[in-house]
Each structure stands twice: as C-alpha cells, then as structure tokens.
Amino acid sequence: MFPMKNLTDLILSTNENIEFKNLFSFNRGIERETLRVTEDGRLSERPPPKELGNILTHPFITADFAEAQPELITSVHNSPAQVLSELEKIHAFVARTLKNELMWCASMPCELPPKSRIKIANFGETNLGRLKGLYRAGLAERYGKEMQTICAIHYNFSFSEDFWRWLKRTEKSEDSSRQFRSRRYFDLMRNFRRHSWLVTYLFGASPATCASFVQNRNHKLLEFHGQETVFSPHSTSLRSADIGYQSNVQDRYVRVSYNGLTEYVSSLKAAILNNFKAYEKFSNEKSQISSNLLQSEAEFYTTIRAKRKIDSEENFVYSLSSNGVEYVELRLLDLNPFTPLGINEDQIRFLDIFLLFCLLTESPKDDEKKLEDNAFNYNATIFNGREKGIILRNGAKETPLKTWANEILAQLLELANFLDRIEKSKENEKSLRNISKLIENPELTPSGKMLNEMDEKKLSFLDFGIQRSKKHKKYYLDLDLSLAEMKFFKIISNESHQAAKKLDRDGKEDFNAYLKNFLDSYQR
After folding, report:
1. What confidence tens digit (pLDDT) does each residue in 390-441 have?
2. Are 383 and 219 a contacting pair, CB within 8 Å?
3. Distance between CA atoms of residues 80 and 291, nearest Å
4. Are 24 and 163 in contact (CB under 8 A)?
5. CB 200 within 8 A of CB 382
6. Cα torsion 352, 354, 359, 360: sign
7. How far apart are CA 480 and CA 475, in angstroms?
8. pTM of the entire structure?
9. Is 156 within 8 Å of 87 (Cβ atoms)?
10. 281: Cβ–Cβ under 8 A, 6 or more apart, which residues?
C-alpha cells in the first residue's frame, strides 16, 4: 500500500501502456427505496398496479418490506450521469403508472396506519416467493412493521478488473487475484466504517419524524412547534439512531468481523446459525425462517456489506467464501429529500472518491478500542453532528469534527484533481468544492436544510414530506420518457409476470423441504 500523496506521481511515472481513464472508471448501481403514499401523506393501502410488473422477477422494480414500499434498482454503470439517467427513467415510468399516488421523498415514513393494516409485500406462491414472505414476516415480528417502512438509498460500488490487476502488480502482491481483491475490499470497508461519521454528517437527512412514529416508545426527541412532529435539534440521521433502522439485539449479540474474508464469513455464519431464545416464540407461530440471531445475511444491519452476485438457488455465504468479494454495498445513506431521485451527482462523485480514499489509505485491523471509537463517532454524529464544536475520537487524540472532516477533504481533493486530470474535466473537484460548503456551514447539510425549511414555513414533518413529494412527482412527470422507452418498461413488466408464472409452474419441491434445504445450505 502506498501513501496517498504519492498516488499521482506513481501512476504518471509508470512504464505500462495503460488507459488510466478506463482503469479508474468505477462501477456503481443504485437501489432507491420509497413509499407509495396518498396525496394527503398517508401510506397507500391499495395493491401496487399490475403495470409495475412482478416484484419477484422484475429487474428494475421490486419491493423492500411492505406492499406499499417500492424499490427501484438501476443496472451497473461506469459514470454518474448514466446511473442517474437510468434512475430517472425508472422513476418516470413508476410515476406515470401510480397516477394518484406519490413517491415519498424522505427516509422517515409518512403517516402510518395501524400495523395490522401495513401489508407485507407479497412475492407470490413459488418457493422463493414464500421464502421472501416468511423472511419479511420474521422482520415484522422481531423489529415491528413500522421500523421496516423506513427507506434508504443503497449504493453498490466496485472497481474494474483492470484496476485490480494493475493494483496487484503495483503492490507486488503474491496473493491470488481473488484473495487480493477480497483483502483490499476489507481494507476499504474497515476504513469506511471508521469514517462513516463523515458520510452521515454530510448526507444525513432525517432530523425529524412524525410524532406518531415514536408513540409508546422511549425517546428523547423534542416537539417541533407542537405540529405532530418530533426532532433532535442537531441530529443528522434519526434513521440511523436507536429509534430508526437499528436492532438492539444485533448491537449486543451480532459481532461480524471485518478483519478479512475468513473472519467475516465465519462470524456472519455464526449469527445465522446460532439460536436466540427470545425469537423462539415467533417460530412457534411459523412467522420466520428460523429463530436464529439472523434469518439470513440480508438481516445483518450495518453501514457497509461485502457482496457478490449469486444465482437464486445459491447460498450467498458459501459463494462469498469460495469466490470472494465482488463489490461493496453502502447502506447508511438517507434519501435526500431535496433531489427527486434521493441522491445527486455531487453525492455520487463524493462517494466514489471517498471509497477510493478508503482503499488507498492504511487500514489497520479492528480491535475493541477501534470498534468502540467507531460506534462513539457514528452515534455522536447521528445525534449531535451539527452541534458547534462537537468532538470525535481520532485514535489516541480527540479532534473536532470540522477539523477532521477538513483534513479528510484535503486528501479527497488530491484524488479529485487526479481523477479530473485523467478524465480531462473538472467535475470531481467541482463536486467536492460543493460538498466542502457543508463542512463549513452545517445548516447547508440536508438535515440542516430540512429543519430550516420546516421552521421558516411552519411545516410539520408530514407537510414538508407532502410538499416535496408533490414537487418531485411533477419532476418525474415532466421528464422526457419516449414512446420507445415507455414500451420497453411495459415489455419488461409483462415479461416479469410471465417469468413468475413459469417459476410457479416449474416449482415442484415441497416448501418445507425447500426451507430445510435453505437452512442446511449454511451448514456447509
């Protein structure tokens, strides 16, 4: 591994005939969760339009937890503009299909009905569909349906194979390609977890929520002008807080190691195989896959996960262990309510550069002290990130958040300038300069802007969400979706229905046997 400051000199002095623009062309895909809501901000209780396709087999439109919780998925693209363009077109198609419903703009949910009326997404009666339904029933029992309606952006990122070959040669590694790639991805993930507070500070966008979301729960949130809204004055992301998308059981009992692929797989598998007595009562009601700490790897809640593509019948943990890490999935991003797609180009360019930074800087193995500091910094930023003078733990010293953020930003700017030289543009530096304003002025962060707008316009969180969601709907409907593109999405939706019917016809295995095989596959 080489020092950050030497990266440009190292690359530009190489004797290899390499197209560096392709070498540093990152791959990214986006998953955007949202809620279907009525014009007055209530969770839709209508079934999803058939025109959106089958959520089990559609490549671009599925469901997260609830029936009224679409998840829009892009293909993998090697430029920010391309991935955003595809995400726009998917939004445009969905908006035209929903007609009288909105796509909720925020991570924290709209006004929710009683939990008995929050319907779990129905993936059909195939064995795979029933497994997905059973998994979600388990989530409802363990964490509550309300928590599962919280939405996010998932950002999937990888470096190209050419990049990995070049880096392996540059670092003179004797590891196999698979071992090298996985080891360096875990280096990246450890650094990302250490610095995840910065991403949450910059892009956290959930400092407030509907009061009804926390009714009958212990919390320290304040009333917001008595408008059926609760908030935390300096918070960045209540979605990431204890009232949000978190699990006290996982925090206490699930300890997945990021010190390498072997440690990650073994500790993740242990959580999937170890019984948790408090969950046994749900198995008695046949409403979960198992009573273990995790029903599957999908239930592991964290800021970043090691990933690879697998076939529908393939065991993920076994495949990851055998074939290594293919990409990483960032799971800490709130929906940005100030942009119609929930994420914008400045955010994407920042994340790309930040992930490159996490790969290229020293990444010591985790120990208890480092993990405690990570948790302290993350939680401090979640609850008090915009508070003046907030102090974080930086190794053996304590450092103001703003000072540390600016130190990291200076290194990111070096990488941005390097990438711009390769791309013959100024887009990366421009995006980072825009992001730097959020460090200098916390009120420019999405969380700060949300509270300021609610305060200035005397809006409740619900009213803020309705206004923004209506504005976004107009944006989606105004997008230019050609007849050919509309026809393409209709064909894909129809094909997804046909594919689901074929799975149903071809499925012959008894579900109990299928479920047993699924659980047994983790014993390998």
Report:
1. 999 999 999 999 999 999 999 999 999 999 999 999 999 999 999 999 999 9
2. no
3. 41
4. yes
5. yes
6. positive
7. 10
8. 0.96
9. no
10. none
